[in-house]
Structure formats: C-alpha cells, structure tokens
Write a structure and sequence with these properties.
binds oxa(dethia)-CoA, 321 residues, four-stranded mixed β-sheet, Peroxisomal Thiolase, Chain A, domain 1, 2 domains, alpha+beta, globular, five-stranded mixed β-sheet, 15 strands
Length: 321
C-alpha cells in the first residue's frame, strides 16, 4: 500500500515583527490589551512593498527541500494554496516552479480555499501520491494578505499577517497521512470575503477583506470540532492518541474552544497566532514547521492539522509524522 509521508518542512516569515503598539502608532484605533484579550495576537509580519507571495513561497519551498535532503529535480508535483496570488495568471505555483527550478513538465497549480487552502492542497497531494501517479509533492501555503487589508476597518486589519509554509510529501510504504476530510458551504459566502470581481475585463468592487467576525467565530468552532472527530474516526483513533493538534491560527479563543471540546490539553496544541497573526493558508504549515524545528513534534507522533475560513471552507488532515 502506498502512503504519503512528510519528509521536510520550511517557512518564510517576512520582515520584522509588528506589535499591537506599532499598529496603534500607525493610527489604528486598537490596543494591546484588546488584541491579547480578544484574539491572542501580539505580533504579525508584513512583506515589504514589492515582495510577492511567490517569493515567500519559493523561500519556504527551498527550506523544505533542504530539510528533506532533496533537490528541485526530485519534485514531481507542486501545489500552492493562496488567496493572494502575484497575478491573475500564471498561477503562483508556476512562478514558484520557475523560481526553484522544479523541472518543466511537472504539474503546478494553485488551490483557492482561503484559510483552509493548505489542508485542501495537502489532501489533493496525498491523493495524487496514494494513487501511485506521483512520488514527491511540494505543498505550500503562502500569503501577502497585507495587500488586501482594509486599514480603515480595525475589526479585520489587525488580525492578519504575511508568510509562507511548505511541506514535502513523499511516497512511502508506511503512513504518513492517515485521514483527510475537506468541506465547503457556499451559502456562507457573505460572512468572510474580498468582493472584487472581474466584469468586461475590469475589476469591480472592493478587493479588501470584510468579515462578520462573530458569525465566522461560531461556525469555525463547530466546523473544527466536527471535522476533527471525522478524521479521527476514519483513522480509528481518538483525541487521546494525538501527539499534537495544529488548528488554523486565527484567534487563540477559537483554538482554546476547539481544544476544550475535543478534550485536548493546551500543552499539546501548537499556537503561533500570538507571533504570526492569521496568515490564512500559510498558518498551518508555518505552525507545523515551527514545532518540528523546536523539537516538539517528533517522528512517530500523530498530528492533527486543521483549516477553516472563507467560502465557507474547512478541513483536516490527520498524519503520523
Ligand atoms: O481566518 C478565517 C477565520 N477568521 C476567524 O476565525 C475570525 C473569527 N472571529 C474573531 O476572531 C472575532 O470575532 C474577532 C477577533 C474578529 C472580534 O472579536 P469579538 O469578540 O467577536 O469582538 P466584536 O466584534 O463583538 O467587537 C467587540 C467590541 C466592539 O466594540 P463595542 O461595539 O462593544 O463598543 C468593537 O467595535 O470590540 C471592538 N473592536 C475593537 N476594539 C479594539 C473591534 N475591533 C477592535 C480592535 N481594537 N481591533
């Protein structure tokens, strides 16, 4: 039987950390106390002007290749999850393919599932590998959300940050990915969106993020609990079997609520939202990379990854590291 296993991870966090007080100094009506109490966010990072999503993605991808002891020529599938591509087309994945020197002919494409994008992309890569058609996939979540934030809206602009996380999955006869599940509910498109669209060749509407925070909060907690139980059941495991839980990093209160519902102690939950803010598709691979590099996640441990976000979309990947 063919499984897909994580053989390397990498990340790229651009620029210096921006504190809540830095945002206040920039004229945003917020406070360190509100941010820490309502979101858990202390810092986020922003890419410098001119630095693109594909550049962050390529750096994270290169670091993941180094960690795996592989070269770009070893990759036969490249998927980038992003909501902030460099351009309408070509895809960010094709730009990364060129930047890294992943060979021509290797399929490369973007996945758009907003903050669930990485979990969607990992699910797709796992299915490619399990089918036997591909052997080594580079899967990246990368965002420059700072480009689409409404700086007049303090209820959203303070939450998000930029970054990229990458994972190399390789075919193996041992697991690997144990279970995946992805879902969407298109009746909820209005609660989290960036509404610009193209019509007659022109961009119309606002490309900036808008969100009904409380509606997203409630749906997120419920969806994350349900999808965690779904993948645990598929794998025949319980929450007690988890070495680490890595939910989407949007708000520490959401993370704590889901962990409590699943009966997972917070010392087994990877939290980076305090340092990274919400980096959408990049949040989960960056968190996993951080916990691998600081020695918390060890080989053989079960790790539950989760995404949730605009669409409305949500999903989970349960894997043995
Ligand atoms: O990645 C996709 C998934 N996204 C999420 O999961 C986000 C989910 N939602 C949330 O995390 C939370 O709903 C927020 C952090 C966005 C907001 O927290 P909340 O506890 O739901 O606050 P709220 O919207 O009910 O606002 C409470 C108060 C309001 O003031 P009043 O009306 O009570 O006087 C807001 O105006 O907080 C005020 N407020 C702020 N105050 C200081 C809103 N934003 C800020 C701010 N600084 N940045």
């Amino acid at each position: 039987m063919i499984f897909s296993r994580v053989v390397g991870t990498g990340a790229c966090l651009p620029g210096a950390p921006i504190s809540n007080d830095d945002l206040v100094a920039r004229g945003i009506e917020t406070s360190d106390e509100w941010m820490i109490g309502r979101t858990g966010i202390r810092f986020r990072h922003y890419a410098d002007a001119g630095v693109t999503t594909s550049q962050l993605a390529a750096k994270a991808g290169r670091e993941a290749l180094d960690a795996a002891g592989l070269t770009p020529a070893d990759i036969d599938l490249l998927i980038v999850a992003t909501t902030t591509p460099d351009m309408i087309f070509p895809s960010t994945a094709c730009l990364v393919q060129s930047a890294l020197g992943v060979p021509a002919g290797v399929p490369a494409f973007d996945v758009q599932a907003v903050c669930s994008g990485f979990v969607y992309a990992l699910t797709i890569a796992d299915k490619f590998i399990r089918s036997g058609s591909h052997k080594r996939a580079m899967v990246i979540g990368a965002e420059t959300l700072s480009n689409i934030l409404n700086w007049e809206d303090r209820s959203t602009c303070v939450l998000f940050g930029d970054g990229a996380g990458a994972m190399i999955l390789a075919a193996d006869d041992q697991p690997g990915v144990l279970a995946t599940a992805v879902h969407a509910d298109g009746t909820q498109t209005n609660i989290l969106s960036a509404n610009a669209r193209f019509s007659g060749g022109k961009g119309i509407g606002s490309p900036l993020v808008s969100m009904d925070g409380q509606a997203v909060f409630k749906l997120a907690v419920r969806a994350l609990e349900e999808v965690a139980l779904e993948v645990l059941e598929i794998a025949g495991l319980s929450a007690k079997d988890l070495g680490w839980f890595i939910p989407h990093q949007a708000n520490s209160r959401i993370i704590q609520a889901v962990a409590k519902r699943l009966d997972v102690e917070m010392d087994r939950v990877v939290v980076t939202v305090d340092r990274h803010g919400n980096t959408s598709a990049a949040s989960v691979p960056m968190a996993m990379n951080a916990a691998i590099r600081d020695g918390r996640i060890r080989r053989g441990q079960n790790v539950l990854l989760q995404g949730v976000g605009g669409g409305f979309t949500w999903g989970a990947v349960l894997l043995r590291y």
